[in-house]
Design brief:
The protein is mostly helical. It is built from 4 helices and no strands. The chain is globular, with a radius of gyration of 13 Å.
């Protein structure tokens, strides 16, 4: 169970970094340097929009 809690902490940390990328505008620089990372993030956000909205990410529909 301890390992599962650690995993949840790591996932939460990664999610908060993703939210920060958008809120600070840093995502535009990451898009140029690591497009695969952005693709991964967008896939995760697409499949769990409500979760990320709860973390403070503003998600629009294109």
């Amino acid at each position: 169970m301890k390992d599962m809690n650690k995993l949840k902490e790591v996932v939460h940390s990664i999610e908060m970094e993703m939210v920060d990328l958008w809120s600070t505008g840093e995502v535009t620089y990451v898009m140029k340097d690591d497009p695969e990372f952005i693709t991964m993030i967008m896939t995760a956000v697409h499949f769990d929009r409500e979760h990320f909205r709860g973390l403070g990410m503003v998600i629009g529909e294109a």
